[in-house]
Amino acid sequence: MPDLNGMALFAAVVRSQGFSQAARDTGLPKSTISRKVAQLEEQLGVRLLQRDTRNLSLTQVGALFYQHCESIVNEVEAAKAVIEHTQNDVSGSLRIAIPVSFSQELIAKLCSGFMRLYPNVQLDVQFTDSDVGLVGEGFDVAIKYGPLQSSDLVARLLFERQPILVASPGYLKTKGIPATPAELGDHSGILLGTSRSAPIWPLGKGSRKTMVSFNRKVRVNSSIMVKQLALDDFGIAMLSHSVCKKELASGALVPILPEWPMEPFKVYGVYSSRRQLATNISVFLDFFAKRIGSQESLLGMMG
């Protein structure tokens, strides 16, 4: 029997008229979708799509197969709707892994709101920077920073944040203001990350992107502490704009090299494909993505 997940992703590629748009529509990495469709073609023993550097088109058999895929996907969604409509509420246990650098106060508020809305769900929330194995360690969902490594796990994009380099006027008065990325190498940096994080910042976007090294003054996995150390004149820090918005407005922190805007960093909800239809996972990620989008207190990006 053909893989239903592969059929659904194949249908998404056709509807979106390409892998890139399908990745944006589904929140899955483009590489994952491409691999699943290739596996489906191999399983069926036919080519469903004609690909070249510019165009993507259906083969004759692909066009016929797509009609059946769309029908099956619609039936699956209808079946899900029936189940969800007949359930009185969402229930069961849900074990979640969340990076240490997230605001624990914010996560506590989100979990409180979720449990009030779904009182029959039992949450087990663990803050960890370990690369947890979802199935092996019993986690249902892991919140992860991108970019993600290719795997058979399903990833849903939850939100994006804009990183920015900042420092205090006091530090800049003593050490000077770096005028180019290369000059960051002469400055002290406050690194937000784990013991494996290197003192490197990715500046710029696209073809103008560059990786710059700096002298690590201190490394911590709490963006609250990173911001405070920057305010206390200990060096330059990379934080999300939303974390230091008030300090930037008041002048307590100053943007560094604003002419080198960086790629937004992305946060995903990752779960095993074995549980992709579990209602409690779906409603938790929906709730998380919706509520987090209106919060300004989510704390910074990992180094």
Automatic annotation (TrEMBL):
One of its GO terms (molecular function) is sequence-specific DNA binding. One of its GO terms (biological process) is DNA-templated transcription. Gene3D superfamilies: 3.40.190.290, Winged helix-like DNA-binding domain superfamily/Winged helix DNA-binding domain. It holds the Pfam family HTH_1. Keywords: DNA-binding, Transcription, Transcription regulation. It comes from the Bacteria. InterPro entries: LysR-type_TF_proteobact-type, LysR_HTH_N, LysR_subst-bd, WH-like_DNA-bd_sf, WH_DNA-bd_sf. Residues 2-59 form the HTH lysR-type domain. Belongs to the LysR transcriptional regulatory family. This is LysR family transcriptional regulator. It comes from Shewanella cyperi.
